[in-house]
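S2.1 Query sequence (Lysine--tRNA ligase)
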Amino acid sequence: MHVRMEKRAKLLERGDQAYPVGVGRTHTLEDIRAKFPALEADTSTGEIVGVAGRVVFVRNTGKLCFATLQSGSGTRLQAMLSLANVGEEALADWKALVDLGDHVFVHGEIISSKRGELSVMADSWQMASKALRPLPVLHAELSEEMRVRRRYVDLIVRDTAREQVRKRSAIVKALRDTLHGEDYIELETPILQLIHGGAAARPFHTHLNAFDQPMTLRIALELYLKRAVVGGMDKVFELGRIFRNEGVDSTHSPEFTMLELYEAYGDQFSMARVMQRMILAAADAVGSRTIATERGEINLDGEWAWLPVYQGLGDAVGQEITPETTAVELRSIAAARGVKVEAGWDAEKLVIELFGEIVEPTLIQPTFVCDYPPSAQPLARPHRDKPRLIEAWDLVIDGKETGTAFSELIDPVIQRERLTQQSLAAAAGDPEAMQLDEDFLRALEYGAPPMGGIGLGVDRLVMLFTGVGIREAILFPLMKPE
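Output structure tokens follow.
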């Protein structure tokens, strides 16, 4: 860095710029590659261009210097600087001032070298931005810590890192395009909220000085989107960041991206069809409806299975389990299977946890896990046909929960009872329990139409299609301070 700082100072001392406001670029590197895809060796085109890029390779050999310029997308093009074309002073400056990582501007003729390499034979050059830190060696493997903590370096040196960003963008675009094509309206709802709700999760707390008011960051998108449906917006969605002050591991981040949508007169079955269309569109956007994983190949085509929670757990442990199965019986199953459970958990909570530990990891193909007990989702409606169950499903792919959906609870009386139970749990010390949201209940009391709703973890979907952990699925994940 000391040597590079001296080179920066030398540029400034003689009146040149180390960081000009712009350069005379006429073409991108991609433009030139597209226009001359197969130029014969040792050919001159007569076309004069100005190009710019980051120097990722340099070879200075006497009267002829070579450099490889790289664009932001990773496209590369050779630059050649000869004594005959740029002159003695410019060539000496190039050798003395240019390092790997610098952005440079090169003006000259498009040619093909004697070895057939598409190049710009420079007649002049200019520093576009002097890099003060050296790049890692391009062919060396960066540690995951370096890749995640210094993502900007990762993007410079690894093609796969840039491809990961492009795939995520394509997946998000496919989700949006699917919903826009089905006449959903995209909304933006508050991130700062007075009351945390819409999920069972521990919120981040903050303070609004203007009102001297405690606030939380949202843990879900749900409650404001439902208010919009009450107001007559029949098909709505939001794709945005939510925040949960919980653990950090290979599949969880405190800050992550969710897609939630709500549709008047939808239910859990119509939502399953919407979910399938969105995920197939995302698969098509990144290239394939089959996904190779460590546990086998996932095929997204065809019918997706439905698996009731109690049936799935019963089949896995070899005995009938129903909503009448007692907590004592479930604790004995947990002990036999080595599943850790807490003393205060009731039968419903035990079923949910046992299913998550024993059954869920085995579900590799897309499976709608359905017929949950009510405590699993306090915002879902009672099942139309099955007592003591709710109309809700979780979509499990590759052994991981990817999304969820409900036939939404719209009865304000039952909803008040459920939220009251949640608020009592919160008062008793449960940091994940929802608070009683009087304004949300008031909205329901104006009359919400029957509706279906979906929550889809965008980062989980990116992980599924790209095979990376959540720290690489998120472009700039939260990290412990260095």
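The two ends are 20 Å apart (CA to CA). The CA atoms of residues 34 and 205 lie 52 Å apart.
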